[in-house]
Every structure is written in C-alpha cells, then in structure tokens.
Automatic annotation (TrEMBL):
<comment type="similarity">
    <text>Belongs to the pyrroline-5-carboxylate reductase family.</text>
</comment>
<dbReference type="InterPro" id="IPR036291">
    <property type="entry name" value="NAD(P)-bd_dom_sf"/>
</dbReference>
<dbReference type="InterPro" id="IPR029036">
    <property type="entry name" value="P5CR_dimer"/>
</dbReference>
<feature type="domain" description="Pyrroline-5-carboxylate reductase dimerisation">
    <location>
        <begin position="116"/>
        <end position="216"/>
    </location>
</feature>
<comment type="pathway">
    <text>Amino-acid biosynthesis; L-proline biosynthesis; L-proline from L-glutamate 5-semialdehyde: step 1/1.</text>
</comment>
<dbReference type="GO" id="GO:0055129">
    <property type="term" value="P:L-proline biosynthetic process"/>
</dbReference>
<dbReference type="Pfam" id="PF14748">
    <property type="entry name" value="P5CR_dimer"/>
</dbReference>
<keyword id="KW-0028">Amino-acid biosynthesis</keyword>
<dbReference type="GO" id="GO:0004735">
    <property type="term" value="F:pyrroline-5-carboxylate reductase activity"/>
</dbReference>
<keyword id="KW-0521">NADP</keyword>
<feature type="domain" description="Pyrroline-5-carboxylate reductase catalytic N-terminal">
    <location>
        <begin position="6"/>
        <end position="44"/>
    </location>
</feature>
<keyword id="KW-0641">Proline biosynthesis</keyword>
<dbReference type="InterPro" id="IPR053790">
    <property type="entry name" value="P5CR-like_CS"/>
</dbReference>
<dbReference type="InterPro" id="IPR000304">
    <property type="entry name" value="Pyrroline-COOH_reductase"/>
</dbReference>
<keyword id="KW-0560">Oxidoreductase</keyword>
<dbReference type="Pfam" id="PF03807">
    <property type="entry name" value="F420_oxidored"/>
</dbReference>
<dbReference type="InterPro" id="IPR008927">
    <property type="entry name" value="6-PGluconate_DH-like_C_sf"/>
</dbReference>
Length: 223
C-alpha cells in the first residue's frame, strides 16, 4: 500500500485535490472534462493534462470560465528521473501554477516552460525521441556483437556510452560538434566511424525522424 485514496468518481477526486493530472487517451479527455465541470472553480483545482493534441483552448472551453489549466509534454525517461518535459500555461493559469508545475515535473527530470506552439515539435523531438535513441543503442550493440562482444556487454556499453555522451553535452555546455571533434584524433578510428555514419546519412535520418513525428503530431492535434 502507498497511502493513496482511490475513487471511480472524477468529480470526487478533483474536489479534494489541489492539482488534477489528466493522464488518459486524448479521445477520453472530453468525457473527463465533462465530469469535472461541476467541481472546478477558478480557485481550485489546477487542471493539468499530458494528453497528446488536446489544446489549452479545448480544455478551457470545456471547463467553467476562469478555470486554470496547464498542458504538459513529458517523456518516458521520467520513469527513471531523467525526463525531459515542457509545459505551457492556459490564459488563467498563474505564476504560482507555473511554479507548482515546475516543482512536480522537476522531481522526475528537466523541465522548461514553452509557448504552446512549440508542443508539436517537442513531441517529435523529446516525446518520440527515446525510441530513436533505443534504435541507436540497439544498432551500436549489434555492431559490438558483430565484432565479437557478448550481447549483454555490448548493450551495456552502448547504453552507458549514450548516457555519458548526453551528460557531457548537458554538463559542459559545449556544442555537440565540438565534443565530437575532441574525440576524433587525426587519422584515428573514431573519425573513421564518424565517416561511416555520415555515409549512412545519420544526420538526415534523425532530422527526418523529428520532422515526420512533428507532422504527425500536428495532424493529430489539428493545429
């Protein structure tokens, strides 16, 4: 037991809460907002949503006037406290609401406030991005196996290398290109590997992945 109270009544849950998080499929959100309408006031609770494509305007239109809403785009590494989340405020959300949202999301990783217009691109980058990185880790591990490494060791080395490289970018503040250059000694094996990746179109592949995911998010949300 973790000390949580449960209920099947959305209004009951909201009426005893300071913050409500809508973490349901987008198609279910209108029903939940309808359920919440009788128990939401300008004073409480703060309504937050992680539902893809459900805009601030949609939430505000479905709730009573002056309702305070915040839209959030997290990603799955929040499960290991390494999330990359963003949020945007509705027209009636306060500075205190922003602080509350920041406090909640910073407990599971990094968080930034952004304009709502950024959210589709954020979805294409950090929302979908873990899948891109899993593919990169798997491919690097396959390369290690190809060259004779045991699968568990190869996967561990690939994942830890990805984690370490990301930490270098965040901790040093250096441009990724500079960090790459610092690893590539003249005529060395690293620059040969980089050249192979460039021949494979790695940059274009990642850029196109973010583009395609963003376009899909735009189509989903109707923005």
């Amino acid at each position: 037991a973790i000390g949580c109270s449960t209920t099947y009544d959305n209004c009951e849950a909201a009426s005893t809460s300071e913050v409500v998080v809508l973490a349901v499929k987008p198609a279910v959100v209108p029903r939940v907002l309808h359920d919440l309408t009788p128990c939401v006031t300008p004073k409480r609770p703060l309504i937050t949503s992680v539902a893809l494509g459900v805009t601030l305007a949609t939430m505000e239109a479905a709730l009573p006037p002056q309702s305070r809403v915040v839209r959030i785009m997290p990603n799955t590494p929040a499960l290991v406290q390494l999330g990359a989340s963003v949020y945007c405020r509705g027209s009636h959300a306060t500075d205190e609401d922003a602080k509350t949202t920041m406090r909640l999301l910073s407990a599971v990783g990094e968080v930034d406030e952004v304009p709502e217009g950024y959210l589709d691109a954020v979805t294409g980058l950090s929302g979908a991005g873990p899948a891109y990185i899993y593919l990169a880790i798997e491919a690097m591990a396959d390369g290690g196996v190809r060259m004779g490494l045991p699968r568990p060791l190869s996967t561990k080395l690939a994942a830890q290398t990805m984690l370490g490289a990301a930490k270098m970018v965040l901790s040093t503040g250096k441009h990724p290109g500079q960090l790459k250059d610092e690893v590539c000694s003249p005529g060395g094996c690293t620059i040969q590997g980089v050249a192979a990746l460039e021949r494979g179109g790695i940059r274009a592949a990642f850029i196109n992945a973010v583009h395609e995911a963003t376009v899909t998010s735009i189509k989903t949300s109707g923005n």
